[in-house]
């Protein structure tokens, strides 16, 4: 059995390859049962989450085990720890064990970029990152695979973390700065990408304008919110999978209160994968909400093992 480290995956899964090859794999028939989500209580700690995400298609399958531990922020440790096991779907043989954190970060960022390639304006070059953690740190590189991203602003509730990420991005050729004025930064951005564990809305609909693209990437439970009801009501919404409608607070809340309707959801990630681009993007605010889906992990793992 192969063991692929984070460094191995960085080498095998560059973003130009992921955004080119993932769409075809995501259109294949894949069985991916709804993920198991369990809350882990520890005294004196914020609740943690254990997720198990299986999927299989013709020839191979896999399962990811993820621990999401918000309390790790106070320990200067990553909030997400994960491993991915790839197996032969016919024989059951375990083929490879992959670093699940790197796999998750890269496929999440790549999926956001694939959506942006269809939904963001062609001349988009100003990116706002809301969040400064593991996923946020990948997004500028992923979006640069599909758009000429030159200017990046970083907002984080912990300003020192925003400064740290901006410094790293400057080292990689971006004109990157940290900001404490979220409203102004949203208004200036072509693409607003949120990757946080926030339980209160950060992006407000009144700040948004037609032609902007918003990606809500971080929230994955019913009590998490990254955008307010006004943002959801104003946007043309796409999701990575229909599971987002019942799992994500950014959608389930507005749906339950009649702010948006199920028929307002324009389509899913596979629908976007069939499109070269969505027409009349300049006339609307496009919004992509992702919660992660097991078929995305399986497709990225398959690319890594080619």
From TrEMBL:
Pfam families in the record: OCD_Mu_crystall
Superkingdom of origin: Bacteria
UniProt record, GO biological process: carboxylic acid metabolic process
GO molecular function: oxidoreductase activity
Source organism of this protein record: Asticcacaulis biprosthecium C19
InterPro entries in UniProt: NAD(P)-bd_dom_sf, ODC_Mu_crystall, ODC_N
GO CC field: cytoplasm
Protein name per the record: Shikimate / quinate 5-dehydrogenase family protein
Family named by the database record: Belongs to the ornithine cyclodeaminase/mu-crystallin family.
